[in-house]
Amino acid sequence: MELAIFYIILAALFALFMAWGIGANDVANAMAPSVGSKAITIKQAIIIAAIFEFAGAVLAGGGVTSTIRRGIVDASLLSGQPELLIYGMLSALLAAGVWLLIASRFGWPVSTTHTIIGAVVGFAAIGIGVSAVHWPQVGRIAMSWVVSPLIAGVMAWLLFISVQRLILFRDNPLKYARRYVPFYMFLAGFFMTWVTVDKGLAHVGLEFTTLQSNLVALLVGALVTAIGTFFMLRIPYQEPEKRDFHFVTVERIFGILMVITACCMAFAHGSNDVANAVGPAAAVVSVALSGDVAQEAIVPIWILIIGGIGIVIGLATYGHRVIATVGQNITALTPSRGFAAGLAAAATIVMASGTGLPISTTHTVVGAILGVGLAGGIAAINLRVVGSIFMSWVITVPAGAALSVVFFLLMRALMPS
Amino acid sequence: MNTSGYISRIFGTSPARPLQKHMDKAAKCAHKLPKLIRATYRDDWQKAAAAREKIVLLEHAADDLKRDLRLSLPKSLLMPVSRSDVLEMLSRQDRIANRTKDISGLIIGRRIIMPEPIQQAYLEFLERNLDAVTQARKSVHELDKLYESGFRGAEADLVMEMTDELGRLEDQSDELQVKLRAQLFALEPDLHPVDVIFLYKIIDRTGDLGDLAQRVGSRLLMMIAR
Predict the structure, then answer these.
(1) Are B209 and B30 in contact (CB under 8 A)?
(2) Which residues of B touch A331 (CB under 8 A)?
(3) Structural domain includes residue B7
(4) Which residues lie below 8 Å from residue A157, measured CB to CB, with a gap of 6+?
(5) Measured between CB atoms, does A315 come within 8 Å of chain B?
(6) Of A105, A109, A383, the CB nearest to B6
(7) CA-based diameter of chain B, in Å?
(8) Residue of A nearest to B10 (CA)
(9) In this complex, which of A107, A333, A362 lies closest to B4 when CB atoms are compared?
(10) CB A262 within 8 A of CB A31
(11) Is the pLDDT assigned to residue A405 strictly greater than 50?
(12) Taking the domains of chain A in order of start, what are their residue ranges?
């Protein structure tokens, strides 16, 4: 039993470290469309990120956590030696943490998700045996890495085309911005809530019927729209003749939408990426407590809370500086563009969270930005950099796998049993 | 840890502001010409040389901006306007500064002074060409709003009107050029033949300024047409 407590404490510490790393580095990429458009200050972005990352992690982080905890490794092969699963998951966490540390030291565009999936698959395939990996599930995850940037890109493209048609191409864009932006506010509030309530809340002990989740989503959507519209109406109307300020005012209206989008994005990121830190830890806790590899119990909520806290600490100690740098470096995004990219990415990510698929936030955000670019919304996108970000997983997955195999073999040799 | 947030690296530099800055320099360069011409009318070659020096400096500055913008536009950029439109517009803008330098060089190098009877007419012709350059500069300054609005809608209509106006200015300068040449033709018997050749050359190149300005506008129009 003492050994079990030792494992649990170790797992919690590793998870906290990993979550800290996510908060320190990853959140900045998730918040990039929001801070890049300068619609919110860096301080506001950090406060929004802290609150909504935590909320997303705790309320909607269960699905992906389950996938990483028991979807990838076929634990039935290990029924005689539960400690192997514990070593494996601990090594995966350690490997991911170390790799991310190295990568961010050199500024390489690596994804937390790719690292942790590579690490879990690595220890299972090489440390235990190739048949210990649920390959169909791994295949689904790999597919989702290709599909998620595509979906986000198409959504961002459609959103921005609609913004152009409904607002920007008109004779009086401001008038139409005031008319249509509340609909976008509603869309954001409704969709994010609907996916979360419908798919994500089971592990918090809240089960909703379809009707109930529709109602809750409608309510939240309406509330978001009401608050957003209140702030929107405080922006004074200007006749289109005042040309120099016209688009500036239009963008200020989109700036309010951007605040909502930033909340959605932080929530979505928390819901998907917290699992990278707490998924393996949840497996360790479950196995250590029951002594059994079956992991029947649902994800304990305190693990999600630890993940959420880790992200917030990462944000407070280091991430805020990265966010500030990203905000300063991006000069090309205006709120109307940032909104389209951000909402499309957030919607894609939260859908993946609902289905339990661990996807890369960064890739999804890049896909969404590319979608806005294809609709003619961004002055210049460097496709070579986009390509290098998309190709980074080719190195990241094997690197995570190799490191975790090394740690796994070390642990098996050194750990007391 | 050290991340500068690699996501910001996917955004290339927007060519709008660099194009506008470059056009500002080219236009400023061209607008130094009247000062130089007036100095020659007063036979004040010191002032004329000073004006020429400023023109050369501005032309160099425009060249530097041109170089920077070209370097910031690799082939791998995804842009709402075609890369060749941007580069073509840049080189037309740049030729305004180059032409200005040519004209000033000819005048200083050969100490050319417009014959008394056409001095006023030449200045008027030059000013009309500079009006076209100014109008082109104003049109180029709509670029950032064009990017904002996605090259469509009310903003695009406005730029189309501005380029129409540019066309009218260019037509006017063409008329003035015909008259000016006729006046010079009448004076030919009293002038040194070599000087006459260079006077025609200067008139031609001055007319080029308006022509180039119009072609900057037409490239802008092609960006909208896509």
Answers:
(1) yes
(2) 11, 14
(3) no
(4) A371, A372, A374, A375
(5) no
(6) A109
(7) 81
(8) A382
(9) A107
(10) yes
(11) yes
(12) 2-410
B5 is a domain residue: no
% of chain A at pLDDT higher than 70: 96
Residue A318: pLDDT band (50, 70, 90) is confident
Looking at the structure of chain B, the number of domains it has is 1
Q: What is the mean pLDDT of chain A?
A: 89
The mean per-residue pLDDT over the stretch B58-62 comes to: 97
CB contact under 8 A, B5 and A169: no
Residue A205 structure tokens: 């002990």
Evaluate if residue B1 carries a pLDDT over 50. no
Query: Is residue B77 classed as helix, strand or coil in its secondary structure?
Result: strand
Section B100-129 average pLDDT: 95
CATH of the domain at B121: 1.20.58.220
User: What residues of B are in contact with residue A32 (Cβ under 8 Å)?
Assistant: 5, 7-8
- In this predicted structure, what is the pLDDT of residue B22? 97
**C-beta neighbour count of A4 within 10 angstroms:** 17
**Six token digits for residue A16:** 């906290």
A101: chain B residues, CB-CB within 8 Å = 1
Q: Are residues B147 and A379, on separate chains, in Cβ contact within 8 Å?
A: yes
**In a domain? residue B107:** yes
Residue predicted with more confidence, A386 or A241: A386
Find the largest Cα–Cα distance for chain A.
79
Give the closest-approach CA distance of A12 to chain B in angstroms.
Answer: 22
Mean pLDDT, residues B170-199 taken together: 94
> In this model, does residue A416 exceed pLDDT 70?
no
Among A160, A247, A248, pick the best mutation site for testing chain B contact (most B Cβ within 10 A): A247
Q: Do A169 and B78 touch (CB under 8 A)?
A: no
pLDDT the model gives residue A1: 57
Single-letter code of the amino acid located at A286: S
Q: Are B36 and B51 in contact (CB under 8 A)?
A: yes
A with B: how many residue pairs have Cβ under 8 Å apart?
140
In a domain? residue B8: no
Give B140→chain A minimum CA distance, Å. 15
How confident is residue B2, by pLDDT bands cut at 50, 70 and 90? very low
ipTM score assigned to the predicted complex: 0.84
Q: Is A104 on the interface with B (CB under 8 A)?
A: yes
Q: Tell me how far CA of residue A183 lies from CA of A171, A190, A350, in angstroms.
A: 20, 10, 20
Q: What is the pLDDT of residues B184-195, one digit of tens each?
A: 999 999 999 999
Instruction: Taking each helix axis as running N to C, give the angle between helix B153-187 and helix B119-140, from 0 to 180 degrees, rounded to the nearest 10.
Output: 160
Q: If we measure between CA atoms, which residue out of A16, A19, A14, A51 comes closest to residue A272?
A: A19
pLDDT at A128: 85
